[in-house]
Structures are given as C-alpha cells and as structure tokens.
Amino acid sequence: SGINAEYGGTGQRAAVQEIELASIKRALAQLPTPPESLIFTVVTKRLRTRFFGKNGANYCNPAPGTIVDTAITQSSTVFDFYLVSQAVSQGTVSPTHYTVLEWKTTRLSPDHLQQIAYRLCHMYFNWTGMISVPGVCQYAHKLAFLTGESLHREPDTRLAHYLYYL
Question: Which of 56, 79, 105, 145 has most Cβ atoms within 10 angstroms of its Cβ?
C-alpha cells in the first residue's frame, strides 16, 4: 500500500504521524488480510527552496529527475528528499519535498522510492508531460477542490470507479 499526503510544513509532521498515520495503520490492521507493508509519504510542493546547476560560467535549472537527498535534508531524523520532476521554459523550476514517514516494512531502498516518486509525476492523464507532484496527489487535490467548492455533498457512489472530477 502506498499513501501520499500533503501538509503545510515540518511543524505538522508530528501531528501527521501521531494522528493520520496511526489511524491508517489501525484501519489496515482491521482488514481481513492486512497488507504486509506500508509506504506513507508526505508531499510538499509550495516551497521557497530552489536549486541551480552550473553550465560553464552560467547557472541553469537542474534537469528533470534531479534528486537532492543530502546536505539540506533532515536525514538525521527522517528519510526525506527533494525532487525536480519537470523542466520549465521560463523562470526557475520549483522542487517538491518528499518526507517518507513509513517505509521500512518494505524491501524498497531509498533509491527505489525516489524513482517511484519521479515516475508517478508522469502518471497524470490531464497533461501530456510531467507534473510537479505524483499524479495521485494531483488527483486528490482536484477531487478535494471539486467536492469543497462545487458538490457540497458526497458524490454518487456510482462514480466511485471513474475519474469524473478531471
């Protein structure tokens, strides 16, 4: 099982771990066949952090797929990394910050988790290129926005298996 969430910042990480992650673990434990492993990743896209590459004497945006997982990360307390998932034609590209709160029950290495995050940024069907966050996060954002702004009630259960909110 893999779950992505978005939260406001590092100050809320404890609440996410103690409340949301704990609730998810309790719910999964009640399933007839609970999953053997869980990956829980918090994805933050509204950052002021920027990265630059060097091309001769000039600075440039880093290439799509660039990972930063040392020096400025919180690696002593949690597994986290920055991912530049897309290229921009103007301005400075914005990285996305991933904080992996649960993953040690899997057989996946940090490199595998980073590759999965990058590949999921290609999995958004409303756009032909890459987006800044994994497709599942963008779908969740669109669904939450639609529900909060337009529906004002639970969607019909017949729509549960369709991407009607796109």
Answer: 79
8 A C-beta contact, residue 95 and residue 83: yes
Dist. CA 59–CA 51, nearest whole Å: 10
Q: What is the distance, to the nearest Å, from the Cα of residue 11 to the centroid of all Cα atoms in its chain? A: 17
Q: With the CA atoms of 154, 38, 163 and 122 taken in that order, what torsion angle do they form, in degrees rounded to the nearest 10?
A: 150
Using CA atoms, how far apart are residues 2 and 23, in angstroms rounded to an integer? 15
C-alpha distances (whole Å) from 18 to each of 77, 101, 108, 147 are 16, 11, 24, 26
19-77, pLDDT tens digit by residue? Answer: 888 899 999 999 999 888 999 998 988 888 888 888 888 888 898 999 998 877 776 67
* DSSP-based helix, strand, coil % in the chain, nearest 5: 30, 20, 50
For tokens 């771990």, name the residue: 17
